[in-house]
Amino acid sequence: MDQLYPIVATIQTLPQRGNARIPTTRRGPDMKLLHIDSSALGANSVTRELTAAVAARWQDDLPGLRVEHLDLDADPIPHLTGRSLAKDDPAETERSERILQQFLQADVIVIGAPMYNFGIPSTLKAWIDRVAIAGKTFRYTADGPEGLAKGKKAIVASGRGGLHSGQPSDFQETYLRHVLGFIGVTDVEFVRAEGVSYSPQHRADALAAAHAAIPRPQRLAA
What we know:
- The chain has helices at residues 46-61, 82-86, 90-105, 122-131, 173-182, 200-212; strands at residues 3-5, 32-37, 66-71, 108-114, 138-141, 144-147, 153-160, 187-194.
- By secondary structure, the chain is an alpha/beta fold.
- It is built from six helices and eight strands; from the N terminus they run E-E-H-E-H-H-E-H-E-E-E-H-E-H.
């Protein structure tokens, strides 16, 4: 079940070089972070550990930030079918619209994306299928496709059992960067823990490096 954690406060923010860039048009309780988990490993998941750390750090730095959590393993979104496209199920159609609006209203998207068989979990792909919609988050023009979900920041917590950075086997991060950019989300940062299946020490080292790489917003000095 989706959870909403409102905390009331007022903040001022400004993009800064070397820090995460965040929208400056929203303030305090109006700014929203969408926290998405897709790992099936529960408490053993490195991506769940990292997304929780990202969300916590941003809440610490931006006390008025509202965080909404979407757990795609505990509450999976149905995969698209002919019935989905025909809108034969009113409940599914209503949920699809709610998921789209949840994405559109978020300023920051934190995505937990483990690598499953060189790609992303099918549950995460099901979410993407509900937010990558022609006329809503992208459109085709005479000059080519244009993303409509602009002005958002995405932080992807990427987990890999092996080492795939810069390799042909990486269909996970390359896909996510492309599809997010296609719908207009071009400010994307990856927090990566890979090689976690090699040994307990590899896992500990990879997680420590990933935690150290978590971007944080920069407050506007008074």
